[in-house]
Automatic annotation (TrEMBL):
Its cofactor is FAD. Signal peptide: none annotated. It comes from Orrella daihaiensis. Keywords: FAD, Flavoprotein, Oxidoreductase. NCBIfam families: CobZ_N-term (TIGR02485), PRK08274.1 (NF006130). It comes from the Bacteria. Pfam families: FAD_binding_2 (PF00890). Gene3D superfamilies: FAD/NAD(P)-binding domain, Succinate dehydrogenase/fumarate reductase flavoprotein, catalytic domain. SUPFAM superfamilies: FAD/NAD(P)-binding domain (SSF51905), Succinate dehydrogenase/fumarate reductase flavoprotein, catalytic domain (SSF56425). This is FAD-dependent tricarballylate dehydrogenase TcuA. Residues 3-429 form the FAD-dependent oxidoreductase 2 FAD-binding domain.
Amino acid sequence: MWDVVVVGGGNAALCAALTAREAGASVLMLEASPKAWRGGNSQHTRNLRCMHDGPQDVLVDAYPEEEYWQDLLKVTGGLTDEALARMVIRESSRCRGWMQKHGVRFQPPLSGALHVARTNAFFMGGGKALVNAYYRSAENLGVDIRYETPVDAVEFDGVRFVAVRSGEQRFEAKSCVLAAGGFESNREWLRQAWGQNEQGEWPADNFLIRGTRYNMGTVLKCMMDAGADIIGDPSQSHCVAIDARAPLYDGGICTRIDCVSLGIVVNTQAERFYDEGEDFWPKRYAIWGRLVAQQPGQLAYSIIDSKAVGRFMPPVFEGTQAQTIEELAQKIGLDVSTLVKTVHDFNQACQPGHFDHTVLDDCHTAGITPAKTHWALPLDKPPFYAYAVRPGVTFTYLGLKTDARASVFFNGVRSPNLYAAGEINAGNVLGKGYTAGVGMSIGTVFGRIAGREAALAANQLIQEEANASA
């Protein structure tokens, strides 16, 4: 028997396993994927959103708690547990030293169009390097790691955790951390969550999965069946507009289309449907997948002119290029006259201003719906470019309701030895929306808390057993 079993193999699971091992517990970590694909969605991440009251190593200026909280409040629309959110925010300021101790390296501050040099610390080598560093540290510390071991059952004695099973294998432990992700790779569950739209379509059939194919939601379903307290809307997720040519799984960051705020986005009817310049891109990129999901065919087109080239992170695939809007419409299969009118009406609505993509500038539209609030420049300088986009689901927000100790509950009763971290409890902080890097903040903070609490629970059981036998 192990002291702690950690179910999952991504950032939150690794943070839990490392922390529990540091506390002296024997730890078993069960990862569903083969070794080559270990790390879940964390292998596709790039950065951690960090609170800081002044310049710190790779972070410039300051990003105080209240500003971080207001950013989170805005994107979630208030669908967040403020106490837990503020805990994550405060703890995010204390993560980097611990991460560096386990081999994670950070790169110098970024500049340019991402606007995150002040708020986010970027991993040297990206998420794959972070995951590999954690696994090396875990191996060196003696964490027992089993790959290709998907957990499909959890055993309880009342609300007390007893064991997990993977097929015929049974793993008993004194405590457990569930960090096995959401259900974004489970197409049938996505279909149930989204249902049919007014056109009779099943929107989820056209979703692409930006991350791992191994997040099937099996552990979450086991917990739901066991009567665990659940939080979140199953249709809410980190859902990004990504290149429609992206692979079904594991496209990652490079498939995201980042020129949305520099042009217009139209649906298959060649009509705009949302304010492309509502706020800075890192605070709005994760709403566009859901917006596209609500359009016919779950398909849209991000259109820019040559003025935008060089102002955004280039995507992995080249866009469709044309010298006129008419030619562009023909190439991407949209009604020519409608797209010409949409672009003409947008151009006419653009008001004179001082364009500055690094601030919320005064370039906006007037007399048009939807408005474009910032960075509204006429599309008038050929060549023109179009990028077809589809919804790309990163992770889902339905999960286990937890407290500040990462404890799992059953009808309001706290389990004495079961904890949750990462995507499976992110819905406590993220009811909807997203802002860049906060998922890694949630996973890192709750992972470390869950690992600490699981080690304490295991130690307490050891003491109780020792006292009983004395």
